[in-house]
Fold:
Amino acid sequence: MAANALDVQQQAIEVTGQNIANVDTPNYSREQIQLQTSTPLATTLGQQGTGVTATGIEQIRSSLLDSQIPGGISSLSYYNTKSDLMTQVQTSLDQPLSSLNSLSSTSATSTSGGLTDDINNFFSAYQSLSTDPTSSVLRQQVVSSAQIVATALNTIGNSLITTQTQIGTDVTTAVNAANTILANIASLNQQISSVEVGGTTKANDLRDQRQQLVETLSQTFDISTHEESNGSLTVRLGSAQGGTLLVSGNYSGNTASATTVKLAVNGSAPTMALEGWTGGVAETVGNLTAVTQPSAGTVAAQLNVINSVIGDGTTGLVQNYDNIAAGLANLVDTVHQTGFTLQGSPAYNTAGSASFFDNDNIPGNALGTVTARNIQLNSAIAADPTQIAASDTAGQPLNGNLAQTIADLKSNTTAPQLGGQTVSNYYLNTLTSLAANIQSTTNQGSTQQLVNQQLSQQRDSVQGVSLDQETSNLMIYQHAYEASARLMSTIDSMMQTLIQIQ
Amino acid sequence: MRITSNIFPDSLSTQLQTIQTSILQDQNAISSGLKVNVASDDPASYEGALQMRASQLQTHGYINVAQQMQQRTQLNYNSATQLQTIVTNASQLAIQAGGALNSSDMQTLSVQVNNLLEQSVALGNSQDSTGNYLFGGNYLRPGDTDPATTAAYVPFSVTRNGSNQITAVTYRGNSNVTQLEVAPGAKMDFNVVGSGSGSPGGLFINGASNVFTQLITLRNDLSAGNAPAAQATLSGINGVLNNVSTVIGATSANLDRLNMTQNDQTQQLNQDQTTISNLTSADYASTVLDLNSKQNSLQAALQAGSKILNLSLMNYLPVP
Structure:
């Protein structure tokens, strides 16, 4: 009995040692040895105890918190990633207030205060031209300010597309990493079900590793999990009902099987899709099938920024900046084509080559769709500023009425692309809408971080290791071990006494 | 709640992160002088600041126009007062002709009037610093030539007799007055035309009031020794003088209006700058106080953390 007790206490001390050793291991759940009295012996006096026995090593974990935490991680990851990416996009729009210089009644109008100043300086240059339409200096100022606006729009338009492409690369990387995690979860499923096949032993450490992988995966996108009776974990993208199956048993994207899937990014406006294997048959590479789209996690945030925030010609910032370029070109060209150049010629050419702003820089080509990326000053005007129309009447070179009319377009709200707003206000609304989105997302992220922190503390409270508690247990088990040893030495002493009597 | 070994350091780490982020914001505000730099710092203030900026740039544009207009209007005013002097002198000469003058004296007066006529034509063809004619309307450009004669095209072209005296003056410009916007919706006359009707109309020619015709007539009458005729031109000259005075009055009023407009706009510019500053500039006093408070929080968190994290039952285990 004493020898058995020594074994059990030693085992208890080893379990305590395991807990102490893993105090900082991520997602480690503390273990506890299960002790109970050994089977008693029947005697004439009644049942006589036979000591202690260890019935198992139990892992203390809360399946409820384990299932709640990945959702919180996905949400936090979504908000943080989206906020960071939108802040990057905001930086690329190049309109910090620190770049605005102070204006006085005597300062020059040429400033570098972002697109706001560029647009206003363009209209101001036209206003100055109205005071002296024959001035080559003022005409050159109109050319320069128009080129600055066009270049600023080109830079921002291209920067948005570059950012979009970079994020697209990040999505592919994240999805590839997720596929590896899915394969590892499937592998752990197989190992866990093998260890737990008899139903008596729990694969504690393997379960810790699997939970860690699940939480890592949930940073990438929102998943739902369900533990099967054999201990394996079924993982779905999105909700438990109807979500796309990602891992079932020991099958995942990297194994050819009837249930395997592999996530891929689909198309130029990317969405998540299945690739590679369906129904056990290898599909042609690139033959993609739609899946449930992630609503949280890094990938959901990246896809949202790519497809909605930055967008394309029909949505998002790309559309907004295209509208600014097209609206500006529309307003100016509509007026400019009615005027007369310094030589008195009509500015408008039926071939459309004399439009003030252009989209392709091909003389003679009719004005096509103007976008932020392609807007430019008509090359004929850039080369010869006398081609700028400033007069509204033929043969009146000192007439600056048309220049004044174009300068007044800064307050014009009729451009169909700008939805009843002036160019400046439309631009300002574009910036502040993005800013409000960033602020709201950042606030949601802060709130979610508090929720996650509470959940994490609650789980740590249940399954985390307390060194004080383990030290206390260590002393208890040490004392029990010492007492068992004392019992053995006492029995040994009794035996010695008995032998000496003989 | 069961407290485990990692709850303290995890919680401390999160708190330190929060406090340090906040300190960084204060530090940025103090070093840049701006509490709002990018839109997401405070969208409402940012929007207000950029709207004020657009307003400032618009005002700045109007100030530039007003400055240009002031230069031109001052030139118009100076020319008109010079013309007033010329016409007044002519008027005095016409009065002198009414006295008992001999033929020689009349010739002398005639020469003086001829000089006044030449000065008037030169004044009518004067240019601004960029070469634009002051009184040609919006038709003529410097360097334009008459297609028929290839002579230089000037607002007032003259015909001379064998004695090289001006016998006729023809207006080549037009009567278009350019109006420029000096404030939203407010336009002012930029130029004074050489010839035109209305009030104020052309400086030199306004209907029957024609400074050149009057001076040519007076010179010819004086040259012919016809004192009564010379004196009779006085009423026409007075008509011219009234017209010039009307133009001077209108131009002078424009100068006053331009001064007031520029003062208002400079004030508006400064007011907008103050609004931008109120919306975006960091309040140093409160930011520094806030920074001190956060530094205290950081120090307290670090001290509490260092004390708590050192405590462990392990420390009290007997050493074998």
